[in-house]
Structures are given as structure tokens and as C-alpha cells.
Amino acid sequence: MPSLHSSVTIKQLEIIESVKNRIDTVEFEKRKGLGSIMKKRFSMMRSRAVPEVPANKEPGDGDKKVKNSKDEMENIEKAFSKQSLRDDDQFNSLPPPPTLRERTRSLNAPSPIQQFGPCGRIMKNSAMVMTIQDPASQRLTWYKPPLTVLVIKKVRDAMVIPPFIQLVKWFINQKRMVVFVESAIMDDPVLTRHPEFGHIKEKLMTFDEKKDDLTDKIDFCCCLGGDGTLLYASSLFQQSVPPIMAFHLGSLGFLTPFKFEDFEAQVTHVLEGHAALTLRSRLRCILMKKEEEETSAKPNTNQLVLNEVVIDRGPSPYLSNIDLYLDGKLITSVQGDGLIVSTPTGSTAYAVAAGASMIHPSVPAVMVTPICPHSLSFRPIVVPAGVELKICVSPDSRNTAWV
User: Fold this and answer.
1) Distance between CA atoms of residues 297 and 289, nearest Å
2) Active-site residue set
3) 321: part of which helix (H) or strand (E)?
4) What element of type H or E holds 310?
5) Can you say how many angstroms the Cα of residue 177 is from the centroid of all Cα atoms in its chain?
6) Under a CB-based contact definition with an 8 Å cutoff, are residues 17 and 112 in contact?
7) Is residue 250 within 8 Å of 228, Cβ to Cβ?
8) Is 220 exposed, middle or buried (0-12, 13-18, 19+ CB in 10 A)?
9) What is the DSSP code (8-state) at residue 276?
10) In sequence order, which residues have a C-beta less than 8 Å from that of residue 46 and are 6 or more positions away?
11) What is the Rg, in whole angstroms, of the alpha carbon atoms belonging to the chain?
12) Which of 60, 108, 308, 314 is 20 to 30 Å from the Cα of 399, by its Cα?
């Protein structure tokens, strides 16, 4: 993450840079003209203080004093002349005055200001300083050619069958890649009745999401569908996630920017390592029951989610009373239908429908949004990424909570 500007806004940074540049320019011009100014000043002193001695006059005591004074002034003038030349050489070698810093392409770029006041500055090379990479510089690279690809299609949708078969055949015949698909689609009657599916059925590798771990088996992933298909693909990888390329063939397209019409050129561009990346953060959800917390037992649910975690009242008609803790400190107690904890990716889903704001996916933050709160003071809040949020049912609550 770029170094965060504590108590310094973007507008203040621009003013500081502008004032600094003006001071540097004035100082540069002032020092550059120092030599010529000193020359003129001592020329005037010489003309006023040293009179001319007539050539036909014998030098007396007074004339000797004048001559000595004249010699001293000449020596002083030579000394300042040398200093002026030295100053001119020094300023000729100086770089030009700095210009105004150009605006960075991303608000997440490194801070242009490294010092705050006479004593404060940004700590360098410390694990305590959170930094993120500029999104404009995040590029995909392969340290070895990808050999396996996972193709996920939208379920129960006949319109996706022809693009699915076309993409799978292209991966097998043109790119010579091993294609993984879900084992459930092999029993899809619409797919099995397709005349071209019989030629590629035996070449497909299948997996069961409840049994198989795809962490170290998949190099690349393609999704055919909407946002739900991409969310499902993300849930299959609970550790490292391979690059996912999502084609828009569903109802919602917030997360699926690619069109399938020219998939060959687009996929080839990605496989050759010429694509930009959008890194999206996920939430680790640990569900711990009261008995597990008392006995310090290992929780049964420990999962990474891409969109959000929802705690609500479920089918109960009563309001939920939920306590929210931030890094061990009680923030507030929520009385309402529930609470949404979302990532920047999930801020455009359930959270925005509940009245929250949308967050750019490159912003390292977590959104906490109440669902129909029975209060006028609790509004959606944004907390920094990396904090630990603890949500539990209040001891005096008459209702339970569902996750």
C-alpha cells in the first residue's frame, strides 16, 4: 500500500510542492546573480574610495597611504572575482529548479512526501508500514508455460453450452492443454445430447468439489457465466488462486469484463503473459460455536470468501442483537435484521443494496453494513484491511443469529 498520508490531504500536498518549488526557484536565481552583484558593488567602492595619483607628482606620505589603500582594494576585488567565477561554475553545474510533480495515475501510488514537520517522517523498510502496489503496474507473468486450465460454466443454462464446447475444443486442439471440468456437468442431459460433446468427453478431466483439492493442479481458470460463476470458482481455491478470466454470459457482469466473441485472441494474449491483473482481497471467516470457544477446540468452519459474510436473524421474526468488536474492542451493538461484512468486491453486491457505498477493488478496506438497523446512529463504516472483526450474539438477546 502506498504510504498513507497521515493528516495530510491531497490538496495540501499540492500546495506544499508548489511553495517548495517557488522557494527553490527564487533561491536559485538569487545565488546565480551573486557574482555580478558583488563585482558591481566593489567597482563602486573602488571608484569612490581610491583617487587617482597624478603621473608627474612625487609620491609623498599621503600618496603612499593612497597607494596602499589602492593595492588592498585590488586584492579584495581579485578575491571576490575568483569567488564569483567559482560561484558561476558551481551554479552552472546545478540541475534546473524542480517543476511541479505530475499527478500519479493511481491514488494508491507511493507518497511523494516522506517527511511531516521537522521531526516526523515515513519509516522505511519496516513490516509495520502497510504498502500496496500501484494497480497500473500489476502485470501477469508466467515463470513456466501453463499446462492445465479449469473451465467453469453457468449451471442450468442451455445458452452457455455452445460457447463451453467451443472453448474446451480450442484448449484441447489448439493449445494442447489439459482441461478440468466439474464432474456434475458430465450428467447434464442438455450437454450430453450435444453432437460435438461426444468427441471431447473422453479427453476431459473431472473433479468433485467436496473431495478434490485443486490448489496445485490448476494453472489457469476460465468462467462462462455471470458474477455467481466467478464467485463459485473463487470458492474452489481456499489457498492460492490461479488467474481467473471471466466471460460475460450471465445476467450480472460486474466481475466479468470479457466478451466471448473474440475469446481466441484474448485468451492467447493472457497465456503469453501480456495481461494486466486486478487483485481482489478475500475475507477469512472463522465460525466458532460457544462450546468450541469454551473448550478451545478447533473450529469446523474456516473459509475464505470473496464477496461478504452475512449474519442475520434467519427465519426468526425477532430482531437480532449483535455485538461488534474491532481488534478486541467493543465498537457497537447492532439491533436489527443483521450485519454485512464485505470486501471491496462485495461492496457492489448485498452491501450496496443495504445502503452502503461502493469501494474500488484496489482499496485495502473492509465494509461493515447494518441490515435495517433499529437505530438512527449506526451507518455503514469502513475499517482498514488486516483488522480482526469479532461478531457475536449479545448475552441479553432473545434471538439467535444465522451466518
Assistant:
1) 10
2) 227
3) strand 320-326
4) strand 308-312
5) 33
6) yes
7) yes
8) buried
9) B
10) 73, 74, 77
11) 36
12) 308
Comparing CA positions, the residue from 377, 352, 305 lying closest to residue 367 is 352
CA–centroid distance for 5 within its chain: 15
Cell 555580478, located at residue: 36
The total number of residues shown for the chain amounts to 403
Strand order through the sheet with 148-153:
205-207, 178-182, 148-153, 220-225, 244-248
Which three cell numbers, joined as nine digits, stand for 81?
Answer: 572575482
In contact, 120 and 38? CB cutoff 8 Å:
no
What pLDDT was estimated at residue 136?
57
Q: With contact defined as beta carbons under 8 Å apart, do 263 and 167 qualify? A: yes
Cell of 38: 558583488
Residue type, 28: F
- Is the CB of residue 99 less than 8 Å from the CB of residue 24? no
Per-residue pLDDT tens digits for 336-374:
999 999 999 999 999 999 999 999 888 889 999 999 998
69, 261, 271, 372 from 268: Cα distances, Å: 87, 14, 5, 47
> How does strand 120-121 pair with strand 115-116?
antiparallel
Q: How far, rounded to the nearest angstrom, does the alpha carbon of residue 329 sit from its chain's CA centroid?
A: 27
User: In the chain, what are the helix, strand and coil shares in percent, each to the nearest 5?
Assistant: 35, 20, 45
* Three cell numbers, residue 178: 489439459
Residue by residue, pLDDT tens for the chain (403 residues) are 333 333 333 344 344 444 445 545 545 454 545 455 555 544 554 444 444 444 444 445 555 444 555 566 666 566 555 555 555 555 455 555 545 444 444 444 455 556 655 565 656 655 555 555 565 567 888 888 899 999 999 888 889 999 999 999 999 999 999 999 998 888 888 888 888 888 888 899 999 888 888 888 999 999 999 889 999 999 999 888 899 999 988 777 778 888 899 999 999 999 988 888 888 899 999 998 877 777 777 787 889 999 999 999 888 888 889 999 999 999 999 899 999 999 999 999 999 999 999 998 888 899 999 999 988 888 899 999 889 999 998 888 888 888 8
Q: Are 287 and 300 in contact (CB under 8 A)?
A: yes
Would you give the DSSP letter of residue 136?
G
User: Strand, coil or helix: what is 9?
Assistant: coil
The Cα-based distances of 36 to 39, 48, 91, 279 in angstroms read: 5, 19, 13, 59
- Report the C-alpha gap between 248 and 259 in whole angstroms: 6
